[in-house]
Amino acid sequence: MKYILIRLSRSLLTLIIVVTVVFLLMRMMPIEGYFGASFDKLDEAQKTAKLNNLGLLDPWYIQLKNFYTDILKGDLGESITYRPKVAITKILGDKLITSIRFGLASLAVSLIVGLSLGIVMARFKGKFWDKLGTCYVVGANAVPAVIYYLLIQVYFTDIFKLPLLYSKSDPKSWILPVLCLSLVNIAYYAMWIRRYMVDELNKDYVRLARAKGLKNKDIMTRHVMRNAFVPMAQYLPASILYTVSGSIYVESLFSIPGTGGLLVTAIQRQDNTLVQALVLLYSSIGIVGLMLGDILMASFDPRIKLSQEGGSR
Amino acid sequence: MTSKKIINNMADNIDPSLFDFAEYDESKSELTGYSNYSFWRSTVQVFMKNKVAVALLILIVTVVLFTLVQPYLPNQKSPTKIYLDPNTGLQYRNVQPNDEFIFGTNSIGQDLWARLWSGTRTSLYIGVAVGIFEAIVGITIGALWGYVRKLDAIITEIYNVWDNIPSTVVLIILTYIMKPSIPTIIFAMCMTGWLQMARFVRNLILIIRDREYNLASRCLGTPTGRIITKNLLPYLVSVIMLRMALAIPAAIGNEVFLSYIGMGLPVDIPSLGNLINEGRALMMDPSQRYQLFFPAAVISVVTISFYVIGNVFADSADPRNHV
Amino acid sequence: MINNEIVLSIEDLVIKFNLRGQELTAIRGASLTLYKGESLAIVGESGSGKSVFTKSFMGLLDANGRIESGSILYQGNDLAKYKTEDEWIKIRGKEIAMVFQDPMTSLNPLKKVGRQVQESIELHQNLKGEEAKKLAVEILNDVGISDPEIRYNQYPHEFSGGMRQRVVIAIAVACNPNILICDEPTTALDVTIQAQILQLLKNLQKKYRLTIIYITHDLGVVANVADRIAVMYAGDIIELGLSEEVFFDPKHPYTWALLSSLPQLGIKGEALYSIKGTPPNLFKEIKGDAFAPRNPHALKIDFEERPPYFEVSPTHKARTWLLDPRAPKVEPPLLIQKMKEMEVKRGEGIE
């Protein structure tokens, strides 16, 4: 119990530092951004007034204090430039749900296809399927994702007659976006489980199981696979939580109203409150996800006691 | 005590003089275990066995050489000049690949072939620069991190914080503050990239300090210099080569990303990112798809080559794979 | 013991491995007969081929290894001809079981210990569920684990090294095999635990009527448990005989060298004996006697022709030209004679 509390407080500290750093970075941005096109037309007094209104002329520690007290009240603030005066929680609401939906669908597809592919690759190590799978993994990892997203959008819409853009009413419009989102993760899971299975197959306890007279099939299911999922459990909660962030590429290419481009747009429009809120959100997710992952893994692996020391990640 | 033969009649025909004692040479008995193993030679040997990697190496060297040589070849056009049709005086917009324009032209009449190779030069330059700077910064910080015990805690905290800030945020903010240009992009990418390298180097230093074979070397009185060159350097170099080889595809990816969100290099500097963006605008028109296709093909070739070469080299440098 | 029935008969076994494009001959024509109910020790240095030899009886060779020639006869079947998993499944566990060297890694760290024993039972003894569990607990008790019902539900990391090895033995015994192969069963354990484990194996041998093969490089272990000893060098069995014969009347120069290396024979104040040189490179073909380059008593013919087996007694044979009638008479080194004297004295002491 004590260990969990210590980890929580350390994570909290990291979180605060992260948000503060981003806070300060945002304040370093040129002030033109707050005014947009009207910058040249305003005079000094008007500019100062607006900046004051936005609370940007207070000393930075006052700004920071206000920010944190607001958060504790559950108030993430209002958007400044993106959708002025609109509560951020409202802006995020719908978008989060959309991104999460796509994220979860993609996660499911990635897991199923990726793990199956990896298992096949391990089974036929060195032969055709393994080589084919490796080509796929190399392609997915090396080439910048946007390239094949674009190519998919261009050619698959032609060949398979699939809808170009996402629309709520058309289930077929889900296919291409989910496919794109899954590509990289499939490669990741496939390589991961392949490596794991190949490694485990050389371990002593597998040799003993074979010496006992267990069939290869049973060794796989009863010993190896079950053990393989333990390390995976560590990253699963984080993966699920990260679905909130959405992919900027996929969402913009297919016009999905999710959180994908939100962070980028917010930074470009210098909507400080929105940026801060988003960074807070993403960082907390990362930290919480890791913690959950550790706990999940500990529950699967009897060797891990939560009182062990953790190093840097 | 008598002894009976169990097998064979063949033994009857043996020359009796063979039953004399042979000369016993103690030093000869030690000879059986000689080997002339050389780490780097074995690494190269294993690398050469991988036909795909070797082919890609030749390919990428050719491509790089070509990008450097291309402007000096005859009949090359300028990447920024806008070409006008001599008959009509109008710009050669969106002309599909033909004899004059090998890769066609873009929407304002610039030669895509020249732009593509110019862009590749730029992107490669960025990638290499990022790789080198990342290496320098990463190694320095990593070495301090691992070697000076007092700094370990502080740097670990810094690492944790920096790791948790989404790298896109840093990238975009820095680029925005400093206005996109080649040096600023390089700087921004280094800021996010040094983490991995520092981490590798730090783990490496810890290994030097703690691994038993290094302790054993020190006990045997091996001078530090030799420990560094024989124990540490081979591992370090292979790790660094891998990171640098992977830095190039990563840098290209980041640059494409920045261009995509409008924070890339100014349009007058051709880069692979800009070209993809331009191609993207026209991609739904089948006759204009070449504008997307050619940059995409070049990016794929370059990134895949570096990725494969880097990984195969790292595998080859692993002594467990040596003959 | 020799008059008992033969349970396993290996004839001229040759095993090769493909390693990074080259071929390694790990076993170069070894022959052995195993009698029911005996304890046979296979002794040799690291790399002599002891493990590879016995693994081939169960089809556990690595993927790059193969049986090139020779036969392994068991109950009328030639195991050397087995190729498919289905064939080997009939042998593994059920007929021949193995205990590995390192108890730390031999057990699945994420499975309860009792379940791992129960798995053997369910595979080979036609019991399931509760009945299998009861038998598992009983076997855990037999191997000397106290509070077996509680320990059944524990994980390997909750056991000490010696305890884990007992569990591994339990798993093997639970298969109800005819032959038990123990590959360096005590090497990874403390000296005090070693004696316990060896005693345990002796007891189990009686109770379950097992034939045991011990693989070891530790002559102390051998002296403790073995009825017969086979000495292996460079993939060949160069001497085979009853325990007393091999210890007190060894005939092969390698056996002399091996026994001379025992620290107990050293004279205080003098350097300990050690064999010069290293075992030969098995990638190359070996001409003559493999031990010849390191053998101070080598004859010229040792470098030319491989020695056949020469019989010293109906139970004792050795592969050395020194036993040929045409060879000069060579006395075993002083240290060996010393050992004989020590044993005689000890025997007198008892009386």
CATH arch. level architecture of the largest domain in chain C: 3-Layer(aba) Sandwich
Task: Provide the residue-averaged pLDDT of chain C.
Answer: 88
Q: Which range does the strand content of chain C fall in?
A: 15-25%
The total tally of domains of chain B equals 1
Order of helices and strands of chain B: EHHHHHHHHHHH
Most extensive chain-chain interface:
A-B, 43 and 41 residues
Helical fraction of chain B: 55-70%
- Gap between N and C termini of chain C, in Å? 26 Å
Number of strands of chain C: 12
Beta-strand fraction estimate of chain B: under 5%
Query: Structural class, from helix and strand content of chain B?
Result: mainly alpha
| Oligomer category | heterotrimer
Roughly what percent helix of chain C? Answer: 25-40%
What does this structure look like?
The complex is a heterotrimer of chains A (313), B (323) and C (351). Chain A has 313 residues and is mainly alpha-helical. Chain A has 2 domains: 12-72, no CATH class; 99-300, Orthogonal Bundle (MetI-like fold), CATH 1.10.3720.10. Chain A has helices spanning 2-27, 44-53, 60-72, 88-123, 128-142, 145-160, 175-201, 204-212, 216-242, 248-253, 262-268, 272-300. Chain A is globular. In chain A, 34% of the residues are buried. The model of chain A is unreliable at 307-313 (pLDDT under 50). Chain B is mostly helical. Chain B has a single domain (40-61, 117-321), classed as MetI-like (MetI-like fold). Chain B contains 11 helices and 1 strand. Chain C is of the alpha/beta class. Chain C has 2 domains: 6-230, Rossmann fold (3-Layer(aba) Sandwich), CATH 3.40.50.300; 252-350, no CATH class. Chain C has helices at residues 50-55, 85-89, 103-106, 113-124, 129-142, 148-152, 161-173, 191-208, 219-225, 243-248, 253-260, 334-350, and strands spanning 6-19, 22-35, 39-43, 65-74, 77-78, 96-99, 179-183, 211-216, 228-233, 236-242, 310-313, 316-318. In chain C, the strands form 2 sheets. Chain C has an 8-stranded mixed beta sheet. In chain C, strands 2-1-4-5 form a 4-stranded antiparallel beta sheet, with no helix packed on it. In chain C, a hairpin with a 2-residue loop joins strand 9 (228-233) and strand 10 (236-242). The longest helix of chain C is centred in the middle third of the chain and has 18 residues, at 191-208. The two termini of chain C are 26 Å apart. The mean pLDDT of chain C is 88. The interface between A and B is large, with 43 and 41 residues.
